[in-house]
Design brief:
The structure is a homodimer. Chain A has about 400 residues and is of the alpha/beta class. Helices cover about 45% and strands about 15% of the residues of chain A. Chain A contains 17 helices and 16 strands. In chain A, the strands form 4 sheets. An 8-stranded parallel barrel of chain A has the order 4-5-6-10-11-12-13-14, surrounded by 5 helices. In chain A, strands 1-2-3 form a 3-stranded antiparallel sheet. Chain A is globular.
Chain lengths: ~400, ~400
């Protein structure tokens, strides 16, 4: 029996130099061209933007977080009022996570650091808000009202059914950082049992509106990743998500991603959870990953930062000393007071076509929150531009050389 | 000599039952159909909205505040970078005030209360930030960096030249509240001398990009208002603004407005400063006022409130007890959790066409600032709808009966 009659994933172009591929991910709310990026609308709102704003910049798919919607009353509201699409006024595809990542992230405070390979993973540890991780599920304290709550695989899937996103995820344990291999292995097996319970509950309630992704765990251990991929391959999930810690640095992250991807069933769409750097995305695509998500583009916008390609970084760096990472600039910097032009002359986003860097700098200094909207618009446009460049490269050249030239600093 | 060759005000329809009229106010950045409402973009940004957002809801003209732009570096930035229109990405008409109202409002803390006839005018008095009011101008402390600053009529006009709005205002003293008649009279004469200096400086520097409004002061005293109107009538101002305190209550405000307006030169456009209530606008239009401004529609949006006509208020009041004033509702109220429909079924704004009241209530409760944008969009649309209804009434019926029926609670 086809569990997913209203969904399909067609691979329409394969690279001859890597595992990169272009696909069409069909959902009841429209098609996603892959590779693509999924923007975070945590509580059913992409912060400071209307759906009109992010649709105009080429967005095809967004996500919302089950954990937040459960605790803030959003899930119940959506059940009563016709689902998340209608409620938030976005009729395109939506994915929800299972709550697994966030219950542990809020619980331990540092799961996000671990996944992203930040070396200061343990430094800002918050007190645990998790009471108990048991076979049944996770008991934790709500950050909204302090109440004791539980998430089980069945509750996660039921909550995701209430929300009504197109693509949904199994419930998993996001393994804490810096644990021994045997913890990671036990945790992975727990996630598999939860994955199976998520699947069974999903099948029992399936009304064909949603498609379920399994999640690959196994931490930084190649053998565990292989075991976990086999589990996911062998269940009738619509898609495969790669979760958990991928390593302590970029190099290890890329190695683990590659070895994990070497085992996956290549007929299904594959999502890499929580990763959004240019190099990481490009490398992931070359391993065969189809979709990515990260809160980064919209979060840094709220801190006054604009995503830019290396040519823009180099342009500004020539004029003035500019503290920078490789992928964005902070417009708070006083040097931008003097820049009359847009952030990026080649950018076709609403912000770059209508506003100068000096104006955005001025808005930040004057505490006018419009800068958050303007920079979110720019950053979303840039990520969509990157993904479009990747798709064009695969279609036209079969490799990602053009994208790498334009988007990577030291290529 | 015509000081304003690039500006004109044509009266295209007069009411036969009142002094109401429809006009076309032509500026180098387009036409304003009058009567109309001017929305506040205090620091060259309508908070939480892009120009695309407020243009889509029918906005024809906005204003910015010279006082804030002077202290936040906005005026200098605009001078360097081609003016306020280019900087903020709005190519329609803009008005700037002179800084007079705000230097005194920030100084005494309560001028706004006085103008609006609030009885608690003196209660929340802040410590004065004004050092000295002298013939030369006002010395005060900057709220941005604590520096000692001065505004004189010449500095006000020069700053407004840097900003580059289409319509600009003379510098005036906004008379403090609860003062005796002789203070008000002396203050009015000071404002006249400052108005003349503003005019002389404007004429000396006139490059025909801007048109200057004189300001009528005189407080609640009909004889002083008449004297002040005569002063403004006799100078070659393009337009006339009515400023200062209009009384302690709505009734006195309407009386003072009417008696003041009975003396004005009716060939010029007339602006009523800082007034935005439905009844006050309708009454003002009947006295011959052409434009209004108030921060109210966008400010209450940021506090979770939606402007509604009486029929919407009545609809909600039937279902549940609703604490209300006559012109808006607070969507924070838990009763809105249950309302699946838009704020107003008849409203054609982006918000009402795409989002439910329940979603906006949820966003407020979840601290998702998108509610500020959505409610600002709705409130701007409603004010523009009111002004359009007034214009239609004048054109079609010659009176405002239809508008009053739709917009006033006890009509």
């Amino acid at each position: 029996m086809n569990l997913y009659p209203n969904f399909s994933f067609q691979i329409i172009q394969k690279s001859h130099k890597s595992e990169a591929r272009c696909g069409l991910l069909n959902t009841p709310h429209g098609v996603v061209e892959t590779p693509n990026f999924i923007f975070c609308g945590t509580k059913a709102s992409i912060k400071n933007l209307t759906p009109r704003d992010f649709a105009n910049e080429g967005t095809q798919i967004i996500l919302a977080n089950t954990y937040h919607l459960m605790l803030n009353g959003g899930a119940d509201l959506m059940e009563k009022h016709g689902g998340i699409h209608k409620l938030m006024g976005w009729n395109g595809p939506i994915l929800t996570d299972s709550g697994g990542f966030q219950v542990f992230s809020f619980g331990y405070g540092t799961v996000a650091n671990e996944i992203k390979g930040r070396r200061d993973g343990g430094k800002n540890n918050r007190p645990s808000m998790i009471f108990k991780i048991a076979e049944e599920g996770v008991t934790f304290r709500s950050y909204v009202d302090g109440a004791k709550k539980i998430i089980t695989p069945e509750i996660s899937i039921e909550t995701q059914r209430k929300i009504g996103a197109d693509l949904i995820l199994v419930f998993d344990e996001c393994t804490p950082f810096h644990v021994e291999k045997d913890y990671t292995e036990n945790s992975m097996h727990l996630s598999h049992r939860w994955g199976k319970r998520s699947f069974d509950y999903f099948v029992a309630k399936n009304d064909f509106r949603q498609a379920l992704y399994g999640i690959v765990q196994g931490g930084v251990y190649e053998d565990l990743r292989k075991t976990s991929v086999n589990f996911v391959n062998n269940e009738d999930f619509f898609g495969i998500a790669v979760g958990g810690s991928l390593g302590q640095n970029k190099s290890q992250m890329h190695d683990i991603t590659a070895s994990t991807m070497s085992h996956v069933n290549r007929t299904r769409p594959v999502h890499l959870l929580g990763i959004g750097g240019f190099a990481d995305i490009i490398h992931g695509v070359e391993c065969g990953i189809d979709t990515f998500d990260c809160v980064h583009p919209t979060r840094i916008a709220r801190h006054g930062c604009a995503i830019v390609r290396p040519n823009i970084l180099n342009k500004f760096s020539k004029t003035v000393p500019l503290k920078q990472n490789n992928e964005f600039i902070s417009l708070k910097n006083n040097i931008f007071k003097e820049f009359d032009g847009p952030i990026d002359d080649d950018c076709q986003c609403y912000t770059c076509k209508n506003f100068s860097t000096a104006y955005i700098h001025y808005l930040i200094k004057a505490n006018e929150n419009l800068f958050m909207s303007l920079l979110s618009i720019h950053n979303i446009h840039q990520m969509n531009k990157l993904m479009k460049s990747i798709r064009n490269d695969i279609h036209q050249h079969g490799d990602l050389q053009e994208t790498k030239k334009a988007w990577l600093m030291d290529f």
